[in-house]
């Protein structure tokens, strides 16, 4: 083998090594700062998200903006992560009466709920969301552990991302609403 052939083979290995290192660094950055996956555990977000579905969540979106009403968010708590929908924003008054949600004394329509879920939303409040927190609920109101009954208010630091896409099972591949 000539010197030029050896040098060419060496350069080819170096280029492959560079490509692999760049790919690993990009994967690390994407996984830790932009997007990650989470598995939905339980039926509290049914029918929007079902038990066992895997979702991609956007970690970057809340670096440049705040959570909005209706966002499906991933909440990180020491014991486990939760997937819930943002209902009340900082400083708002939340009340549920006669199965209807009121935000600042105005009825709020919830098109993402089934009739059954709407009819199983008991009375709650009124309660004011602290200035540094959010009020969240699951879409399956009858069984959801949320801001009404166990999770309490959620701080912005606990919200680690916004659910963007169902990726598994493949038959459910879709954007989350």
TrEMBL record:
One family name in Pfam for this protein: Peptidase_S26
Compartments in which it is found: Cell membrane; Membrane
Family matches, as PROSITE patterns: SPASE_I_1, SPASE_I_2, SPASE_I_3
Catalytic reactions of this protein: Cleavage of hydrophobic, N-terminal signal or leader sequences from secreted and periplasmic proteins
Chief localisation class: membrane
Gene Ontology biological-process annotations: signal peptide processing
Keywords: Cell membrane, Hydrolase, Membrane, Protease, Transmembrane, Transmembrane helix
UniProt EC number: 3.4.21.89
Family affiliation: Belongs to the peptidase S26 family.
Full protein name: Signal peptidase I
Originating organism: Oceanobacillus limi
Taxonomic lineage of the native organism: Bacteria, Bacillati, Bacillota, Bacilli, Bacillales
């Amino acid at each position: 083998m000539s010197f030029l052939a050896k040098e060419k083979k060496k350069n080819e290995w170096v280029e492959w090594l560079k490509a692999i290192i760049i790919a690993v660094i990009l994967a690390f950055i994407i996984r830790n700062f932009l997007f990650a996956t989470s598995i939905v555990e339980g039926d509290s977000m049914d029918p929007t998200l079902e038990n066992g579905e895997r979702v991609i969540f956007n970690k970057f979106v809340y670096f440049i903006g705040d959570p909005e009403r209706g966002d499906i968010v991933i909440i990180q708590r020491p014991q486990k992560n939760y997937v819930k929908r943002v209902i009340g924003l900082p400083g708002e008054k939340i009340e549920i009466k006669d199965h209807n949600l009121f935000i600042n004394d105005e009825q709020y329509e919830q098109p993402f709920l089934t009739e059954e879920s709407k009819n199983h939303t008991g009375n709650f409040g009124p309660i004011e969301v602290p200035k540094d927190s959010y009020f969240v609920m699951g879409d399956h109101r009858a069984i959801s552990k949320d801001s009404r009954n166990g999770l309490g208010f959620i701080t912005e630091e606990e919200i680690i991302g916004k659910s963007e896409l169902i990726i598994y099972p493949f038959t459910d591949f879709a954007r989350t609403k």
